[in-house]
Write a structure and sequence with these properties.
Blueprint lengths: L7 H4 L2 E4 L15 H5 L2 H7 L3 E4 L3 E2 L11 E5 L6 H13 L3 E6 L9 H8 L11 E2 L24 E4 L4 E4 L14 H16 L4 E4 L27 H13 L6 E5 L5 H4 L1 H4 L6 E3 L1 H4 L5 H15 L6 E3 L8 H4 L2 H11 L5 E5 L34 H4 L18 H4 L1 H5 L5 H14 L1 H5 L2 E4 L5 E6 L3 E6 L5 E2 L5 E7 L9 E3 L4 E2 L4 E6 L1
Parallel strand pairs: 1-2, 1-13, 2-5, 5-9, 9-10, 10-11, 12-13
Antiparallel strand pairs: 3-4, 6-8, 7-8, 14-15, 15-16, 16-21, 17-20, 18-19, 18-21
This protein binds 1-deoxynojirimycin (NOJ).
Protein backbone atom coordinates (compact mmCIF):
# COMPACT_ATOMS: atom_id res chain seq x y z
CA UNK A 1 0.00 0.00 0.00
CA UNK A 2 1.34 3.45 -0.91
CA UNK A 3 1.96 5.64 2.13
CA UNK A 4 -0.60 8.42 2.65
CA UNK A 5 0.99 11.67 1.51
CA UNK A 6 1.53 14.21 4.28
CA UNK A 7 -0.70 17.25 4.22
CA UNK A 8 1.03 20.29 2.71
CA UNK A 9 1.37 22.01 6.07
CA UNK A 10 3.55 19.15 7.35
CA UNK A 11 5.76 18.67 4.32
CA UNK A 12 5.97 22.33 3.26
CA UNK A 13 7.75 25.50 4.30
CA UNK A 14 5.82 28.68 5.10
CA UNK A 15 7.06 32.19 4.28
CA UNK A 16 5.64 35.13 6.21
CA UNK A 17 4.85 38.32 4.32
CA UNK A 18 4.38 41.61 6.13
CA UNK A 19 2.28 43.40 3.47
CA UNK A 20 3.35 46.94 4.33
CA UNK A 21 6.96 46.10 3.53
CA UNK A 22 7.01 43.60 0.67
CA UNK A 23 6.12 45.41 -2.55
CA UNK A 24 4.47 48.76 -3.26
CA UNK A 25 2.57 48.78 -6.56
CA UNK A 26 1.17 52.34 -6.43
CA UNK A 27 4.09 54.44 -5.24
CA UNK A 28 2.59 55.61 -1.94
CA UNK A 29 5.53 54.17 -0.02
CA UNK A 30 3.48 51.42 1.68
CA UNK A 31 3.40 47.86 0.37
CA UNK A 32 0.12 46.45 -0.94
CA UNK A 33 -1.50 43.25 -2.20
CA UNK A 34 -0.83 43.91 -5.89
CA UNK A 35 2.81 44.49 -4.93
CA UNK A 36 2.90 41.03 -3.37
CA UNK A 37 1.28 39.39 -6.40
CA UNK A 38 3.95 40.97 -8.60
CA UNK A 39 6.69 39.35 -6.51
CA UNK A 40 5.30 35.82 -6.17
CA UNK A 41 8.01 34.39 -8.39
CA UNK A 42 10.56 35.25 -5.71
CA UNK A 43 8.83 32.67 -3.50
CA UNK A 44 8.74 30.08 -6.27
CA UNK A 45 12.45 30.54 -7.00
CA UNK A 46 13.20 30.43 -3.28
CA UNK A 47 11.37 27.11 -3.05
CA UNK A 48 8.79 27.65 -0.29
CA UNK A 49 5.35 26.05 -0.37
CA UNK A 50 3.06 28.54 1.30
CA UNK A 51 2.82 32.15 2.33
CA UNK A 52 1.28 33.71 5.42
CA UNK A 53 0.02 37.25 5.04
CA UNK A 54 0.00 39.51 8.07
CA UNK A 55 -3.29 41.49 8.28
CA UNK A 56 -4.50 43.51 5.29
CA UNK A 57 -8.06 44.13 6.55
CA UNK A 58 -9.66 47.50 7.13
CA UNK A 59 -7.89 49.08 10.06
CA UNK A 60 -7.12 52.47 11.59
CA UNK A 61 -3.53 51.08 11.85
CA UNK A 62 -3.01 51.85 15.54
CA UNK A 63 -1.20 48.47 15.53
CA UNK A 64 -0.60 48.34 11.74
CA UNK A 65 -3.49 46.06 10.94
CA UNK A 66 -3.70 44.02 14.15
CA UNK A 67 -6.54 46.41 15.03
CA UNK A 68 -9.22 45.26 12.59
CA UNK A 69 -12.26 47.47 11.96
CA UNK A 70 -13.78 45.25 9.25
CA UNK A 71 -12.75 41.61 8.99
CA UNK A 72 -14.26 41.03 5.58
CA UNK A 73 -12.82 43.90 3.61
CA UNK A 74 -9.35 45.00 2.51
CA UNK A 75 -7.93 48.28 3.79
CA UNK A 76 -7.59 50.78 0.92
CA UNK A 77 -3.88 51.09 1.78
CA UNK A 78 -3.48 47.48 0.66
CA UNK A 79 -5.99 47.44 -2.21
CA UNK A 80 -9.36 45.79 -2.69
CA UNK A 81 -11.05 42.43 -2.24
CA UNK A 82 -10.42 41.88 -5.95
CA UNK A 83 -6.68 42.32 -5.26
CA UNK A 84 -6.92 39.73 -2.47
CA UNK A 85 -8.66 37.31 -4.86
CA UNK A 86 -5.98 37.96 -7.51
CA UNK A 87 -3.23 37.28 -4.98
CA UNK A 88 -4.78 33.98 -3.89
CA UNK A 89 -5.31 32.98 -7.53
CA UNK A 90 -1.76 33.98 -8.50
CA UNK A 91 -0.35 31.97 -5.62
CA UNK A 92 -2.46 28.90 -6.37
CA UNK A 93 -1.45 29.01 -10.04
CA UNK A 94 2.14 28.73 -8.88
CA UNK A 95 1.39 25.90 -6.46
CA UNK A 96 1.70 28.13 -3.39
CA UNK A 97 -0.79 27.88 -0.51
CA UNK A 98 -2.02 31.02 1.18
CA UNK A 99 -2.73 31.49 4.86
CA UNK A 100 -4.07 34.72 6.26
CA UNK A 101 -3.86 36.26 9.70
CA UNK A 102 -7.01 36.05 11.84
CA UNK A 103 -7.13 38.33 14.86
CA UNK A 104 -9.87 36.93 17.11
CA UNK A 105 -8.86 38.22 20.55
CA UNK A 106 -9.63 41.87 19.87
CA UNK A 107 -10.92 44.31 17.28
CA UNK A 108 -10.26 47.96 16.59
CA UNK A 109 -12.15 50.40 18.81
CA UNK A 110 -13.60 51.69 15.51
CA UNK A 111 -15.16 48.33 14.64
CA UNK A 112 -18.94 48.70 14.42
CA UNK A 113 -19.30 46.00 17.08
CA UNK A 114 -17.33 48.06 19.61
CA UNK A 115 -18.99 51.32 18.64
CA UNK A 116 -22.34 49.67 19.44
CA UNK A 117 -20.99 47.98 22.56
CA UNK A 118 -19.69 51.18 24.12
CA UNK A 119 -22.83 53.17 23.20
CA UNK A 120 -24.79 52.05 26.28
CA UNK A 121 -24.89 49.39 28.97
CA UNK A 122 -28.15 48.15 27.43
CA UNK A 123 -26.89 47.77 23.88
CA UNK A 124 -27.28 44.17 22.58
CA UNK A 125 -23.56 44.16 21.74
CA UNK A 126 -22.53 45.24 25.26
CA UNK A 127 -21.72 41.60 26.09
CA UNK A 128 -19.50 41.24 22.99
CA UNK A 129 -16.62 42.96 24.83
CA UNK A 130 -15.41 42.69 28.42
CA UNK A 131 -16.94 45.48 30.51
CA UNK A 132 -16.62 45.77 34.28
CA UNK A 133 -17.38 48.26 37.02
CA UNK A 134 -14.38 50.07 38.48
CA UNK A 135 -12.37 48.23 41.11
CA UNK A 136 -11.31 49.47 44.54
CA UNK A 137 -10.60 53.21 44.64
CA UNK A 138 -12.34 53.70 41.26
CA UNK A 139 -9.30 52.09 39.57
CA UNK A 140 -9.17 49.19 37.08
CA UNK A 141 -11.20 46.05 37.91
CA UNK A 142 -8.08 43.89 38.37
CA UNK A 143 -4.29 43.91 38.04
CA UNK A 144 -4.03 42.69 34.43
CA UNK A 145 -1.62 44.72 32.31
CA UNK A 146 -1.32 45.38 28.58
CA UNK A 147 1.16 43.30 26.57
CA UNK A 148 2.68 46.47 25.16
CA UNK A 149 5.08 47.69 27.81
CA UNK A 150 7.59 49.72 25.84
CA UNK A 151 6.69 52.89 27.70
CA UNK A 152 6.22 51.10 31.01
CA UNK A 153 3.44 48.84 32.22
CA UNK A 154 -0.06 50.09 31.63
CA UNK A 155 -3.30 48.55 32.90
CA UNK A 156 -5.18 46.35 30.44
CA UNK A 157 -8.28 48.44 31.24
CA UNK A 158 -9.54 51.81 30.07
CA UNK A 159 -12.44 53.69 31.65
CA UNK A 160 -15.22 54.66 29.29
CA UNK A 161 -16.49 57.88 30.87
CA UNK A 162 -19.88 57.80 29.22
CA UNK A 163 -21.05 54.48 30.62
CA UNK A 164 -18.85 54.52 33.72
CA UNK A 165 -17.30 51.08 33.14
CA UNK A 166 -13.85 49.85 32.16
CA UNK A 167 -13.22 47.73 29.04
CA UNK A 168 -10.46 45.15 28.73
CA UNK A 169 -7.66 45.47 26.18
CA UNK A 170 -4.78 43.01 26.25
CA UNK A 171 -2.91 45.34 23.87
CA UNK A 172 -3.58 49.02 23.04
CA UNK A 173 -6.66 50.86 24.32
CA UNK A 174 -7.55 51.02 20.58
CA UNK A 175 -7.75 47.19 20.62
CA UNK A 176 -10.62 46.18 22.92
CA UNK A 177 -10.77 42.44 23.72
CA UNK A 178 -13.76 40.51 22.40
CA UNK A 179 -15.65 38.49 25.00
CA UNK A 180 -15.15 34.87 23.91
CA UNK A 181 -17.47 33.71 26.73
CA UNK A 182 -20.30 35.18 24.61
CA UNK A 183 -21.57 32.54 22.12
CA UNK A 184 -22.61 35.22 19.59
CA UNK A 185 -18.99 36.44 19.43
CA UNK A 186 -17.75 32.93 18.74
CA UNK A 187 -20.32 32.52 15.96
CA UNK A 188 -19.53 35.89 14.39
CA UNK A 189 -15.81 35.18 14.40
CA UNK A 190 -16.39 31.69 12.94
CA UNK A 191 -18.25 33.40 10.12
CA UNK A 192 -15.15 35.50 9.44
CA UNK A 193 -13.22 32.25 8.96
CA UNK A 194 -15.90 30.98 6.59
CA UNK A 195 -15.77 34.22 4.58
CA UNK A 196 -12.05 33.73 3.82
CA UNK A 197 -12.27 29.94 3.44
CA UNK A 198 -14.98 30.51 0.83
CA UNK A 199 -12.60 32.84 -1.00
CA UNK A 200 -10.10 30.01 -1.20
CA UNK A 201 -7.51 30.63 1.51
CA UNK A 202 -5.75 27.51 2.77
CA UNK A 203 -5.73 28.41 6.42
CA UNK A 204 -5.06 30.90 9.17
CA UNK A 205 -2.40 32.12 11.50
CA UNK A 206 -4.30 32.80 14.71
CA UNK A 207 -3.13 35.90 16.56
CA UNK A 208 -2.65 35.36 20.34
CA UNK A 209 -4.56 32.07 20.16
CA UNK A 210 -3.93 31.28 23.83
CA UNK A 211 -5.81 34.44 24.86
CA UNK A 212 -9.17 33.07 23.68
CA UNK A 213 -9.60 31.56 27.15
CA UNK A 214 -9.50 33.91 30.15
CA UNK A 215 -10.66 33.54 33.73
CA UNK A 216 -14.36 34.54 33.52
CA UNK A 217 -14.16 35.75 37.12
CA UNK A 218 -11.39 38.15 36.14
CA UNK A 219 -9.43 37.47 39.32
CA UNK A 220 -6.03 39.11 39.76
CA UNK A 221 -2.99 37.53 38.13
CA UNK A 222 -0.67 36.00 40.71
CA UNK A 223 3.02 35.28 40.40
CA UNK A 224 3.28 32.12 38.29
CA UNK A 225 -0.43 32.08 37.41
CA UNK A 226 -1.74 34.38 34.71
CA UNK A 227 -5.49 34.34 34.38
CA UNK A 228 -5.79 36.54 31.31
CA UNK A 229 -4.70 33.77 28.89
CA UNK A 230 -4.23 30.00 28.60
CA UNK A 231 -7.39 29.34 30.64
CA UNK A 232 -8.84 25.80 30.13
CA UNK A 233 -11.76 27.21 28.11
CA UNK A 234 -9.28 27.99 25.31
CA UNK A 235 -9.11 24.32 24.27
CA UNK A 236 -12.77 23.68 23.35
CA UNK A 237 -12.73 27.04 21.56
CA UNK A 238 -9.79 26.01 19.41
CA UNK A 239 -11.46 22.66 18.76
CA UNK A 240 -14.56 24.48 17.52
CA UNK A 241 -12.37 26.60 15.24
CA UNK A 242 -10.83 23.46 13.78
CA UNK A 243 -14.30 22.09 13.09
CA UNK A 244 -15.08 25.23 11.08
CA UNK A 245 -11.98 24.57 8.96
CA UNK A 246 -13.11 20.98 8.51
CA UNK A 247 -16.40 22.15 6.97
CA UNK A 248 -14.23 22.91 3.92
CA UNK A 249 -12.32 20.45 1.80
CA UNK A 250 -8.63 20.56 0.98
CA UNK A 251 -6.53 20.37 4.14
CA UNK A 252 -7.21 23.84 5.56
CA UNK A 253 -4.81 24.59 8.40
CA UNK A 254 -4.62 26.65 11.58
CA UNK A 255 -1.29 27.69 13.14
CA UNK A 256 -1.54 29.40 16.48
CA UNK A 257 0.55 32.15 17.94
CA UNK A 258 0.69 30.62 21.41
CA UNK A 259 3.07 32.95 23.20
CA UNK A 260 3.83 30.86 26.26
CA UNK A 261 7.47 30.75 27.33
CA UNK A 262 7.17 27.26 28.75
CA UNK A 263 7.07 24.21 26.48
CA UNK A 264 5.09 22.19 29.02
CA UNK A 265 2.34 24.78 28.80
CA UNK A 266 2.60 24.91 25.01
CA UNK A 267 2.49 21.17 24.31
CA UNK A 268 -1.21 20.64 25.19
CA UNK A 269 -2.16 22.92 22.30
CA UNK A 270 -0.68 20.42 19.88
CA UNK A 271 -0.77 17.05 21.50
CA UNK A 272 -4.44 16.13 21.19
CA UNK A 273 -4.52 16.55 17.41
CA UNK A 274 -8.03 18.00 17.41
CA UNK A 275 -7.33 21.70 17.86
CA UNK A 276 -4.47 23.66 16.28
CA UNK A 277 -2.63 21.92 13.46
CA UNK A 278 0.60 23.77 14.33
CA UNK A 279 1.83 26.09 17.07
CA UNK A 280 4.59 28.65 16.96
CA UNK A 281 7.15 27.93 19.65
CA UNK A 282 8.45 31.12 21.28
CA UNK A 283 10.71 29.30 23.70
CA UNK A 284 12.71 28.27 20.62
CA UNK A 285 12.49 31.70 18.99
CA UNK A 286 13.80 33.45 22.09
CA UNK A 287 16.78 31.15 22.77
CA UNK A 288 20.25 32.64 23.06
CA UNK A 289 22.75 31.29 20.52
CA UNK A 290 23.93 28.09 22.19
CA UNK A 291 24.19 24.56 20.85
CA UNK A 292 23.33 23.04 24.22
CA UNK A 293 20.31 25.31 24.63
CA UNK A 294 18.88 24.50 21.21
CA UNK A 295 19.47 20.79 21.66
CA UNK A 296 17.77 20.74 25.05
CA UNK A 297 14.80 22.75 23.80
CA UNK A 298 14.20 20.69 20.65
CA UNK A 299 14.67 17.42 22.55
CA UNK A 300 12.26 18.55 25.26
CA UNK A 301 9.58 19.62 22.79
CA UNK A 302 9.91 16.43 20.73
CA UNK A 303 9.54 14.42 23.90
CA UNK A 304 6.57 16.48 25.20
CA UNK A 305 4.49 16.26 22.03
CA UNK A 306 5.47 12.76 20.90
CA UNK A 307 6.09 11.36 17.41
CA UNK A 308 2.45 11.83 16.29
CA UNK A 309 2.35 15.59 16.75
CA UNK A 310 4.04 17.91 14.31
CA UNK A 311 6.23 20.81 15.52
CA UNK A 312 6.65 24.14 13.75
CA UNK A 313 9.85 26.15 14.05
CA UNK A 314 10.55 29.81 13.48
CA UNK A 315 13.37 32.11 14.52
CA UNK A 316 11.90 35.39 13.38
CA UNK A 317 8.72 37.29 12.66
CA UNK A 318 7.48 40.89 12.46
CA UNK A 319 7.62 41.29 16.26
CA UNK A 320 11.24 40.25 16.94
CA UNK A 321 14.68 41.52 16.07
CA UNK A 322 16.15 40.04 12.89
CA UNK A 323 18.05 36.74 13.16
CA UNK A 324 21.18 38.31 11.63
CA UNK A 325 21.06 41.10 14.22
CA UNK A 326 20.31 38.90 17.22
CA UNK A 327 22.83 36.18 16.46
CA UNK A 328 25.12 37.85 13.92
CA UNK A 329 25.60 37.25 10.18
CA UNK A 330 27.77 34.12 10.59
CA UNK A 331 25.39 32.33 12.94
CA UNK A 332 22.46 33.42 10.73
CA UNK A 333 23.66 30.97 8.05
CA UNK A 334 23.78 28.18 10.64
CA UNK A 335 20.34 29.25 11.91
CA UNK A 336 18.95 28.86 8.37
CA UNK A 337 20.30 25.31 8.19
CA UNK A 338 18.89 24.51 11.63
CA UNK A 339 15.44 25.84 10.78
CA UNK A 340 15.24 24.00 7.48
CA UNK A 341 16.50 20.63 8.73
CA UNK A 342 14.60 20.04 11.97
CA UNK A 343 11.58 17.75 12.06
CA UNK A 344 8.61 20.09 11.72
CA UNK A 345 7.27 22.88 9.56
CA UNK A 346 9.68 25.81 9.18
CA UNK A 347 8.36 29.37 9.05
CA UNK A 348 10.62 31.97 7.42
CA UNK A 349 10.10 35.70 7.84
CA UNK A 350 10.50 37.84 4.73
CA UNK A 351 14.01 39.19 4.35
CA UNK A 352 15.67 36.61 6.58
CA UNK A 353 16.46 34.71 3.37
CA UNK A 354 18.52 37.79 2.43
CA UNK A 355 20.20 37.89 5.83
CA UNK A 356 18.76 41.35 6.44
CA UNK A 357 19.73 43.11 9.64
CA UNK A 358 17.50 45.38 11.71
CA UNK A 359 17.39 48.84 10.20
CA UNK A 360 18.08 51.79 12.49
CA UNK A 361 15.03 54.05 12.50
CA UNK A 362 15.68 57.66 13.49
CA UNK A 363 13.41 58.86 16.28
CA UNK A 364 11.40 61.16 14.01
CA UNK A 365 10.49 58.20 11.80
CA UNK A 366 9.46 55.80 14.60
CA UNK A 367 5.88 54.67 14.04
CA UNK A 368 5.33 51.48 16.06
CA UNK A 369 4.09 51.53 19.65
CA UNK A 370 6.30 48.64 20.67
CA UNK A 371 9.72 49.22 19.11
CA UNK A 372 9.26 46.84 16.18
CA UNK A 373 10.03 49.15 13.25
CA UNK A 374 13.63 47.92 12.66
CA UNK A 375 12.51 44.40 11.67
CA UNK A 376 9.69 45.75 9.50
CA UNK A 377 11.85 47.79 7.13
CA UNK A 378 11.00 47.17 3.44
CA UNK A 379 12.59 44.47 1.31
CA UNK A 380 15.40 45.73 -0.95
CA UNK A 381 14.72 44.05 -4.29
CA UNK A 382 17.19 45.92 -6.50
CA UNK A 383 20.38 47.88 -5.79
CA UNK A 384 19.55 51.61 -5.48
CA UNK A 385 22.17 52.39 -8.14
CA UNK A 386 19.86 50.62 -10.59
CA UNK A 387 16.39 51.14 -9.15
CA UNK A 388 16.62 54.40 -7.24
CA UNK A 389 16.41 54.98 -3.50
CA UNK A 390 13.26 52.84 -3.18
CA UNK A 391 15.38 49.77 -4.08
CA UNK A 392 12.60 48.27 -6.20
CA UNK A 393 10.26 48.26 -3.19
CA UNK A 394 8.64 51.60 -4.06
CA UNK A 395 8.95 54.48 -6.45
CA UNK A 396 7.86 56.79 -3.64
CA UNK A 397 9.11 57.59 -0.13
CA UNK A 398 9.15 54.31 1.85
CA UNK A 399 7.14 54.33 5.09
CA UNK A 400 10.23 53.02 6.94
CA UNK A 401 13.83 53.46 5.86
CA UNK A 402 15.29 50.93 3.44
CA UNK A 403 18.41 49.20 4.72
CA UNK A 404 21.56 51.26 4.07
CA UNK A 405 23.08 48.00 2.80
CA UNK A 406 20.58 47.66 -0.06
CA UNK A 407 23.28 47.93 -2.71
CA UNK A 408 24.96 44.76 -1.40
CA UNK A 409 22.03 42.74 -0.03
CA UNK A 410 19.30 43.39 -2.63
CA UNK A 411 17.58 40.20 -3.76
CA UNK A 412 18.64 40.58 -7.41
CA UNK A 413 22.28 40.99 -6.37
CA UNK A 414 22.22 37.91 -4.13
CA UNK A 415 20.43 35.82 -6.75
CA UNK A 416 23.54 35.88 -8.93
CA UNK A 417 26.00 35.17 -6.13
CA UNK A 418 26.71 31.49 -5.35
CA UNK A 419 27.96 32.43 -1.89
CA UNK A 420 25.00 34.58 -0.82
CA UNK A 421 22.49 33.96 1.94
CA UNK A 422 19.74 33.80 -0.69
CA UNK A 423 21.59 31.06 -2.57
CA UNK A 424 22.10 29.12 0.68
CA UNK A 425 18.35 29.31 1.35
CA UNK A 426 17.54 28.14 -2.18
CA UNK A 427 19.93 25.21 -1.79
CA UNK A 428 18.54 24.26 1.61
CA UNK A 429 14.97 24.43 0.35
CA UNK A 430 15.79 22.40 -2.75
CA UNK A 431 17.49 19.75 -0.64
CA UNK A 432 14.53 19.61 1.71
CA UNK A 433 12.15 19.25 -1.23
CA UNK A 434 14.15 16.35 -2.63
CA UNK A 435 14.61 14.50 0.66
CA UNK A 436 11.77 12.61 2.37
CA UNK A 437 14.08 12.11 5.36
CA UNK A 438 14.38 15.87 5.81
CA UNK A 439 10.69 16.55 5.27
CA UNK A 440 9.21 13.73 7.24
CA UNK A 441 11.89 11.57 8.85
CA UNK A 442 12.29 11.02 12.57
CA UNK A 443 14.58 13.22 14.68
CA UNK A 444 17.25 12.07 17.10
CA UNK A 445 19.87 14.34 18.59
CA UNK A 446 23.46 13.08 18.69
CA UNK A 447 26.13 13.58 21.28
CA UNK A 448 28.64 15.94 19.74
CA UNK A 449 31.59 18.18 20.52
CA UNK A 450 31.39 21.35 22.53
CA UNK A 451 29.36 24.08 20.78
CA UNK A 452 28.10 21.58 18.19
CA UNK A 453 24.42 20.64 17.85
CA UNK A 454 24.10 17.46 15.81
CA UNK A 455 21.11 15.34 14.93
CA UNK A 456 20.00 12.59 12.63
CA UNK A 457 16.92 12.68 10.37
CA UNK A 458 15.12 9.54 9.31
CA UNK A 459 18.26 7.46 9.90
CA UNK A 460 19.54 8.73 6.53
CA UNK A 461 20.97 12.17 7.14
CA UNK A 462 23.00 13.83 9.83
CA UNK A 463 23.21 17.56 10.48
CA UNK A 464 26.08 19.06 12.49
CA UNK A 465 26.00 22.74 13.38
CA UNK A 466 28.91 24.63 14.88
CA UNK A 467 27.61 27.43 17.09
CA UNK A 468 31.08 28.76 17.84
CA UNK A 469 32.85 31.55 15.95
CA UNK A 470 35.92 29.31 15.66
CA UNK A 471 36.75 25.83 14.39
CA UNK A 472 35.31 22.90 16.31
CA UNK A 473 35.55 19.12 15.99
CA UNK A 474 32.04 17.66 15.36
CA UNK A 475 32.76 14.56 17.51
CA UNK A 476 29.47 12.91 16.53
CA UNK A 477 28.93 9.38 15.25
CA UNK A 478 28.25 8.64 11.58
CA UNK A 479 29.98 8.53 8.21
CA UNK A 480 28.85 9.50 4.78
CA UNK A 481 29.04 12.10 2.04
CA UNK A 482 28.74 15.85 2.37
CA UNK A 483 25.49 17.14 0.84
CA UNK A 484 25.66 20.80 1.79
CA UNK A 485 27.68 23.14 3.96
CA UNK A 486 26.93 26.70 5.02
CA UNK A 487 30.57 27.44 4.10
CA UNK A 488 30.85 28.74 0.56
CA UNK A 489 33.03 26.57 -1.62
CA UNK A 490 32.76 23.38 0.46
CA UNK A 491 33.01 20.24 -1.71
CA UNK A 492 29.66 18.42 -1.93
CA UNK A 493 30.22 14.69 -2.25
CA UNK A 494 33.34 14.67 -0.06
CA UNK A 495 33.66 11.72 2.34
CA UNK A 496 32.84 12.72 5.92
CA UNK A 497 33.49 11.00 9.23
CA UNK A 498 31.51 12.96 11.81
CA UNK A 499 33.80 11.80 14.60
CA UNK A 500 36.78 13.51 12.98
CA UNK A 501 35.15 16.28 10.97
CA UNK A 502 36.54 19.77 11.62
CA UNK A 503 33.78 22.32 11.26
CA UNK A 504 34.82 25.85 10.41
CA UNK A 505 33.67 28.86 12.42
CA UNK A 506 29.88 29.18 12.10
CA UNK A 507 29.75 26.15 9.82
CA UNK A 508 26.88 23.74 9.52
CA UNK A 509 26.85 20.60 7.35
CA UNK A 510 24.30 18.10 6.11
CA UNK A 511 25.69 14.63 5.53
CA UNK A 512 24.09 11.67 3.70
CA UNK A 513 24.83 8.71 5.96
CA UNK A 514 26.07 5.37 4.70
C1 LIG B 1 0.72 39.49 17.95
C2 LIG B 1 1.10 40.11 16.66
O1 LIG B 1 2.10 39.33 16.06
C3 LIG B 1 1.55 41.51 16.97
O2 LIG B 1 2.15 42.14 15.87
C4 LIG B 1 0.36 42.28 17.46
O3 LIG B 1 0.78 43.58 17.86
C5 LIG B 1 -0.30 41.58 18.65
N1 LIG B 1 -0.43 40.16 18.47
C6 LIG B 1 -1.67 42.14 18.88
O4 LIG B 1 -2.55 41.74 17.86
Amino acid sequence: MAPTPSPWWRSGVVYQIYPRSFGDSDGDGVGDLAGITARLDHLVELGVDALWLSPFYRSPMADFGYDVSDHTDVDPTFGTLADADALVAGAHERGLRVIVDWVPNHTSDRHEWFIASRSSREDPKRSWYVWRDPGPGAGPPNNWTSNFALRGEIPAWTLDERTGQFYLHSFLPEQPDLNWDEPAVREAMHDVLRFWLDRGVDGFRIDVAHALGKDPELLDNEPGRSRHQDWPSVHPRLQAIRRVLEEFDGDRMAVGEVYLLDQEALAPYLRTGDELHLVHNFVFLNLPWSAAGFRATVDEFEQLVGPGAWPAWCLGNHDHARIASRYGPGPARVAAMLLLTLRGTPFLFQGDELGLQDVAVPSERVVDVDGRDPVRAPIPWEPPSRAGSGAGFTTGEPWLPITPEAERVAASVQAGDPESMLTLHRELLALRRSSAALREGSYRSLDAGEAVFAFERGGELAVALNFAPERRRARASGRGRLLLSTRPGAQAGAEVDLAELELGADEGVIVALG
